[in-house]
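[Discussion] Sanity-checking designs against the backbone

I'm trying to build intuition for which residues belong where. Below is a structure token string of 318 positions. I'd appreciate it if someone posts a full sequence so I can compare it with mine line by line.
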């Protein structure tokens, strides 16, 4: 065999060996990009959500790419809108969003849908009337917040009696989940005949929650319980109860079951909370997006609710 023929054979072999990598490259390029846009990453709940999503993507790395982002605090709605706009420019295929505001995010979500992005709503439900006004449907994947809050309220109700004064520390009042949790607490307090002396917003944050709790304790020295719409605000309420010298005399409940609340459940500073399984909420949303993309479903065929679980957590929970 002469040198010229041998070189041709070597070149052909190299080309054949290289061919299998081409479809793999094409497949990698075709992987859908899914954006997860959350609320405040200063809130342990959303960090847990982000970690759950990243673990899911790592286990399914061949199926999709994940872009995870959040805002600086629970009220940073304008920045969350900007993040969604950035995702539209980045041409993501899917968007899973926990909106900071149930109405304010709807226009930019319509913009995303118009750009061909599949959108799924988690954690805090978008406002139905606002969606209808924009002529769009967005599936909601998440728990029944009213039911979850009632579980917590019902447990508290066993520790108080008719006529006892209680206060509710609500999340951001323009969010559906804050409203629903307040309704759940009110359902439970109404059933036992408790006197709800106030419903005030602690903005989902510890410091505002502390301020509201302190004001309620000052205005109603005989108050028996504080029901906080999330555990961050419950942490603030616990600090206010301690500062007032009423630890053990004023009961506190929360919602989310973050790690920081667990020692307080154990020693009784917090009576109960609700676990809505943060690490799985984003995963459920991502899987809904991926299925829609795989099945080539249009956004307007994806309406409805996929209810996820929520569970009561107390010091006796396993």
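Best answer:
Here's mine. Compare freely.
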């Amino acid at each position: 065999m002469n040198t010229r023929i041998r070189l041709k054979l070597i070149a052909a072999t190299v080309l054949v060996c290289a061919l299998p990598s081409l479809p793999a490259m094409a497949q990698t390029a075709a992987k859908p990009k899914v954006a997860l846009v959350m609320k405040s990453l200063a809130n342990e709940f959303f960090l847990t959500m982000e970690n759950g999503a990243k673990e899911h993507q790592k286990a399914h790395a061949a199926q999709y790419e994940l872009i995870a982002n959040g805002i600086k605090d629970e009220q940073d709605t304008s920045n969350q809108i900007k993040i969604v706009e950035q995702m539209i420019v980045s041409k993501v295929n899917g968007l899973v969003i926990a909106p900071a505001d149930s109405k304010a995010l709807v226009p930019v979500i319509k913009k995303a849908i118009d750009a061909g992005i599949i959108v799924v709503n988690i954690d805090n439900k978008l406002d139905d009337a606002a969606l209808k006004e924009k002529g769009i449907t967005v599936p909601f994947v998440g728990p029944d917040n009213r039911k979850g809050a009632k579980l917590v309220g019902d447990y508290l109700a066993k520790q108080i009696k008719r006529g006892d004064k209680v206060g509710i520390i609500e999340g951001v009042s323009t969010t559906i989940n804050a409203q629903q949790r307040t309704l759940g607490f009110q359902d439970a307090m109404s059933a036992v005949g408790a006197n709800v002396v106030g419903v005030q917003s602690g903005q989902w944050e510890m410091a505002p929650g502390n301020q509201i709790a302190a004001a309620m304790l000052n205005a109603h020295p005989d108050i028996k319980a504080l029901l906080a719409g999330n555990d961050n605000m419950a942490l603030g309420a616990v600090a206010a109860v301690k500062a007032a010298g009423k630890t053990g005399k004023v009961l506190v409940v929360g919602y989310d079951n973050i790690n920081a609340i667990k020692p307080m459940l154990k020693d009784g500073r917090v009576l109960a909370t609700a676990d809505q399984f943060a690490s799985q909420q984003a995963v459920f949303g991502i899987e809904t997006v991926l299925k829609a993309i795989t099945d080539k479903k249009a956004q307007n065929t994806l309406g409805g609710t996929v209810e996820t679980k929520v569970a009561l957590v107390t010091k006796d929970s396993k």
